[in-house]
Write a structure and sequence with these properties.
Helix content: 55-70%
Strand order of the largest sheet: 1-2
CATH architecture: Up-down Bundle
CATH topology: Growth Hormone, Chain: A
Largest sheet: 2 strands, antiparallel
Protein name: Equilibrative nucleoside transporter 2
Organism: Alosa alosa (allis shad)
Number of domains: 1
Strand content: under 5%
Pfam families: Nucleoside_tran (PF01733)
Distance between the termini: 48 Å
Number of helices: 17
Keywords: Membrane, Transmembrane, Transmembrane helix, Transport
Number of strands: 4
Family: Belongs to the SLC29A/ENT transporter (TC 2.A.57) family.
Structural class: mainly alpha
Length: 465
């Protein structure tokens, strides 16, 4: 809900900026994930037999599984660290610094396209890049979730919608690269230059945010409540206990201010009037101290469970299992099947699921039906494993048709985007406004926990197929 005295968000510029920031947080993950075919092609070994005929021998690197795992483990680790260290490191350093580092790593990945490298070394360098780029992405995402939690509710939804569109952006970029007449190397170079531009735009958008009055109104007001309660309380107590001879006889926050140890600074009627708004605010809000992390968790644990379980289900099969589904049809369509039916369909519907929460939020945050619906998503794991996944050795194929796989993916991704957006937007509403930032950062940790659990679960599920 917008404050009555707040400036107007002209042209919804702050909303657009948070949409772009949401887009920028998930660019690294989505561009590496969608480029699965490019990485797997570079990890294909070429050997020659005795007749000098070329033989393609593939060493199994399980790239998609390792890419998912090494994306989510640093996300979990650095999100946890960010939850406790964010008051000690400036917001600008955490957000702008992370974006600069991500930009440098994307440029390095683009350069690597033109560098010939032995497969094992390329695999190691790529995995190291994925680890570091997602470490900075975790700090960025956690900081931005905490920041957007200080603004009215609709800005959290716009931020989540931007995150949902990041995958669509990456999938479209990959389809255009495949459709171009350029050779594979040039197409891959153009593909990885795209997130460099996107990250640069994200950085510029964040720097612009601090200059907008609407953003300043909420961010400065809430940060003063979050980080400076002791200073405010000391000023209030000093004024309330000031005697006529200018000596303080009170005590606050363990600091001695009694027995003539501190001179009272306000001496004029103007000074007295300057403190009246603060005293009135104190009367309205007698306790401005923030809740502890544990106390905040006790209030949001249901939403924390929902976001964790949701992403555990999603990452357990996407993309590690779904990327190996093969089309039932031969020809040119085979080249586009995974980029379209796996990545594009997933990301469009995930974004739609996040966006529809701006129109309708159901079930309500107090309802027990919401966590029940989140748990019911587990049915998608066996459904996707029974699609035409190749290679397979254990389970039968029950859904060999492309349309069946596409329909399952559409429902799978729509439900994922909808439930995660509800979880992330409901959590800050369950705590006082001064604790919304802490709730947002905690939810980011549990989001990362779900991603990591899903990534770990993807290994046994892929072997089970």
């Amino acid at each position: 809900m917008t404050d009555e005295g707040a400036p107007k968000d002209r042209g919804c510029l702050v909303g657009i900026i948070f949409f772009i920031l949401g887009l920028g947080t998930l660019l690294p993950w989505n561009f590496f994930m969608t480029a699965s075919q490019y990485f797997n092609n570079r990890l294909t070994l070429n050997t020659s037999d005795t007749n000098d005929d070329t033989v393609i021998a593939r060493k199994e690197y399980y790239f998609d599984n390792w890419m998912t795992l090494l994306s989510q483990l640093p996300l979990l680790l650095f999100t946890l660290l960010n939850s406790f260290l964010y008051p000690r490191i400036s917001e600008t350093m955490r957000i702008a610094g992370s974006l600069v580092c991500i930009l440098i790593l994307f440029i390095f990945t683009a350069i690597l396209v033109k560098v010939d490298m032995e497969q094992d070394r390329f695999f190691s360098v790529t995995m190291a890049t994925i680890w570091f780029i997602n470490s900075f992405g975790a700090v960025l995402q956690g900081s931005l979730f905490g920041l957007v939690g200080l603004l009215p509710q609709k800005y959290s939804t716009m931020f989540m919608s931007g995150q949902g569109l990041a995958g669509t952006f990456a999938a479209v970029a990959m389809i255009l690269a495949l459709a171009s007449n350029a050779d594979n190397e040039t197409a891959a170079l153009g593909y990885f230059i795209t997130p460099c531009v996107g990250t640069l735009i994200t950085l510029m958008s964040y720097l612009l945010l601090s200059k907008l009055r609407f953003a300043q109104h909420y961010l400065c007001k809430n940060k003063s409540k979050s980080y400076e309660p002791e200073t405010t309380n000391q000023l209030l107590l000093t004024e309330d206990t000031t005697t006529e001879n200018g000596k303080a006889n009170g005590h606050t926050n363990g600091s001695p201010v009694a027995n003539g140890s501190m001179d009272a600074t306000p001496s004029s009627s103007e000074s007295r009037q300057a403190f009246l708004p603060l005293e009135a605010d104190k009367a309205d809000k007698p306790d401005e101290s923030k809740l502890s992390v544990i106390e905040v968790f006790k209030k949001i644990w249901v939403m924390a469970f929902c976001v964790t379980f949701n992403f555990t289900v999603t990452l357990s099969v996407f993309p590690a299992v779904t990327v190996d589904v093969r089309s039932a049809y031969e020809g040119e369509w085979e080249k586009y099947f995974i980029p379209v039916c796996c990545f594009l369909f997933f990301n469009i519907m995930d974004w739609l699921g996040r966006t529809v929460t701006t129109l309708k939020r159901w079930p309500p945050k107090e309802s027990r039906l919401f966590p029940a619906l989140v748990v019911s998503r587990v049915v998608f794991i066996p459904l996707l494993m029974l699609c035409n996944v190749q290679m397979r050795s254990n389970l039968p194929v029950l859904f060999s048709n492309d349309a069946a796989f596409s329909a399952i993916m559409l429902l799978f991704s729509l439900s994922s985007g909808y439930s995660v957006c509800l979880s992330m937007s409901y959590a800050p509403q369950l705590v006082p406004a001064k604790d919304a930032e802490t709730a947002g950062i905690l939810m980011t940790f549990f989001l990362a926990l779900g991603l990591s659990l899903g990534a770990g679960l993807s290994f046994p599920l892929r072997f089970l197929v």
